[in-house]
Amino acid sequence: MHPMLTIAIKAARRAGGVINRGARNLDALAVREKAANDYVSEVDKESEQTIIRTLLEAYPKHSILAEESGAINAGSGDKKSDYQWIIDPLDGTTNFVHGFPQYAVSIALAHKGVITQAVVYDPCNNDLFTATKGAGAFLNDTRLRVGKRQQLKGTLIGTSFPFKEHQHIDAYLGMQRRVMETTSGLRRAGSAVLDLAYVAAGRLDGVWAFGLAPWDIAAGSLLITEAGGAITDLQGKDGYMKSGDIAAGNLKVLHELLQELAPFMTPALKAR
Question: Domains of the chain by range and CATH?
Answer without folding.
Answer: 3-143 (3.30.540.10), 156-270 (3.40.190.80)
